[in-house]
Design a protein that fits this description.
Layout lengths: L2 H18 L14 E6 L1 H5 L4 H6 L3 H11 L4 H26 L70 E3 L5 E3 L7 E8 L2 E8 L3 E10 L10 H11 L2 H10 L5 H21 L4 E2 L10 E2 L3 E5 L5 E4 L1 H10 L1 E10 L3 E10 L5
Parallel strand pairs: 7-8
Antiparallel strand pairs: 1-5, 2-3, 4-5, 6-12, 9-10, 11-12
Helix pairs in contact: 1-5, 4-5, 6-8
Length: 353
């Protein structure tokens, strides 16, 4: 398999899922700046038929670890390895789309709903409370992709950032677990990951005014069922919302159908997750999830979902934004009934979007 064939295979698999769930990411048409979204199924990535793909795209050091965990016979290890694999399969495709301006995801207009760790590359638990992915690695992962693209114009223009080769990218993490693309952050490129219910999403955005991006996905069927009634959603909301957000949430839900009520609760939670990733910290969820520098759940919230997302930013989050030199925090969300996807973008203070 050639490198170009591998990249096209990942892109085709993503496009198929993107088309199936495009209503959940209709907000992409509203961002107004280069954004790429890669949608993969971790089970697809881990199939034996993808063995050649797995040998080519991840760097050998991480590839061997991923294969070992996939074949370990331990479901939890295999699941985490599949998430880490999707991180690395999606990375070169997303970055190449941004660099070349060739995102294959046309959408109609729709309403939207730190210093690097000196300990080397670190991958966290793969939960959305931590903006990272599974499997700890030794120092330095190395290039994300091997081999140059056939007939790639970068062979003629090696210093042109708009035609950067995929083999120049590698995934690294800040001390707080935020994923970054080595060598690309100073070019305004940011990346974020999320997974739930058999879906793995990668969002990459490129703009010199951006400070951070965050993506989050919720598989809505797990919020439905006999025991997932309105009372359950209210208890769930009370667990992560501030008093102000909870009061607004309940007031807006008066007379609302149960499914719409739970979907709105999921949107609040998902936007909180996405915003914490955009700030580069993740959340202190509990149960060992989240680090010392992670933000408390109640420090980020949502006051309004329509017509535009309006965030509630508590003192801890406000302090974090100030340290980053940040200004506006923009949020987007959408759903197709099966998945709810949200995104947050933190802009520099001088940009008043």
């Amino acid at each position: 398999m050639r490198l170009e064939d591998a990249l096209q295979e990942v892109e085709a698999a993503s496009q198929k899922l993107f088309d199936r769930h495009r209503d959940s990411v209709a907000w992409l048409s509203e961002t107004g700046f280069p954004t790429a979204l890669i949608w993969l199924n971790p089970a697809w990535a881990a199939e034996p038929e993808r063995a050649a793909l797995r040998k080519l795209l991840p760097h050998p050091r991480i590839q061997r670890r991923i294969e070992s965990h996939l074949m370990s016979g331990k479901p939890a290890h295999a699941r985490r390895a599949a998430y880490a694999l999707c991180d690395r399969l999606a990375l070169p495709v997303a970055v190449r789309q941004l660099m070349r301006g060739t995102s294959p995801n046309p959408l109609p207009s729709a309403s939207s709903g730190q210093a690097l760790s000196k300990k080397g590359v670190r991958l966290g638990e793969g939960t959305d409370s931590c903006p990272s992915s599974p499997l700890p690695l030794a120092r330095g992962e190395g290039p994300g992709v091997r081999g140059a693209l056939p007939n790639d114009p970068t062979t003629q223009r090696p210093n042109d950032p708009t035609t950067q080769r995929p083999n120049d990218y590698s995934l690294m993490h800040t001390a707080m677990g935020q994923p970054i693309v080595r060598g690309m952050r100073d070019r305004g490129l940011h990346i974020s990951y999320s997974h739930d219910g058999g879906a793995h999403l990668t969002v990459a955005a490129r703009d010199s005014r951006l400070l951070g991006v965050g993506i989050d996905i919720v598989h809505l069927p797990r919020l439905r069922g006999d025991r997932r009634d309105r009372a359950y959603v209210e208890r769930f909301a009370r667990h992560f919302m501030s008093a102000e957000e909870y009061a607004v949430f309940l007031s807006a839900g008066t007379g609302e159908e149960p499914d719409a009520f739970s979907q709105r609760g999921a949107a609040h939670f998902s936007l909180m997750e996405a915003a914490s990733k955009a700030l580069g910290t993740g959340l202190k969820i509990g149960g060992g999830m989240g680090g010392p520098a992670s933000l408390p759940k109640q420090s980020l919230g949502v006051l309004d979902l329509q017509p535009e997302v309006e965030f509630i930013i508590g003192p801890e989050a406000r302090s974090r934004i100030a340290r980053l030199g940040g200004g506006p925090l923009k949020g987007y969300w959408g759903t197709d009934g099966e998945y709810l996807v949200s995104a947050a973008f933190l802009w520099k203070v001088e940009d008043r979007r």
